[in-house]
Amino acid sequence: MIGGHNENAAKNLVTTINQYYPEKQKVYIISLLKTKDYKTVIKILTQDKNGIFILTTGNDKNKYVDKEVLYNEAKKYTNNVYKDELFDAIKTAKSKYKEKIIMIVGSFYVYKDVIEELETK
């Protein structure tokens, strides 16, 4: 679980991940709050041209940008983009992309739910 909910956090995330895992392909499971500049965050994260991006609506449809909106924004920058519900995206990543670096990016409000999901599976 990695914060990447604003422009600076997204830039720091990209720098750090590329520093530690330059050769590994990355999978980004992304959910962003409606109060954040999701367009800028998506633009920064999709600079990873080998990345796989799964957009979700997070764990609260009232607080998070809808996955369709995130998907349409990401499609401007990459074709490696998918959309899914948060927990389905995690299941898909764990089964289909287990050899890649998998990151859950965005708001820390999903942290508790994600940890519980990972611990029960």
Per the principal axes of the C-alpha atoms, what is the gross shape? globular
Mean pLDDT, to the nearest integer, reads 89
Biggest sheet character: 5 strands, parallel
The first-level CATH class is given as Alpha Beta
Strand content: 15-25%
What would CATH call the architecture? Alpha-Beta Complex
Distance between the termini: 16 Å
Helical amount among residues, as a percent range?
40-55%
The CATH superfamily name is Mur ligase, C-terminal domain
State the domain count.
Answer: 1
The tally of beta strands, per DSSP, is 5
Q: What is the CATH topology?
A: Protein-Tyrosine Phosphatase, Chain A
Word description of this protein:
The chain is of the alpha/beta class and 121 residues long. The protein is 42% helix and 17% strand. It has helices at 7-20, 38-45, 67-74, 86-96, 111-120, and strands spanning 2-3, 26-31, 52-55, 81-83, 101-106. It has a five-stranded parallel beta sheet, with helices on both faces. The protein starts with a strand and ends with a helix.
Compact description:
This protein has helices at residues 7-20, 38-45, 67-74, 86-96, 111-120, and strands at residues 2-3, 26-31, 52-55, 81-83, 101-106. It is of the alpha/beta class and 121 residues long.
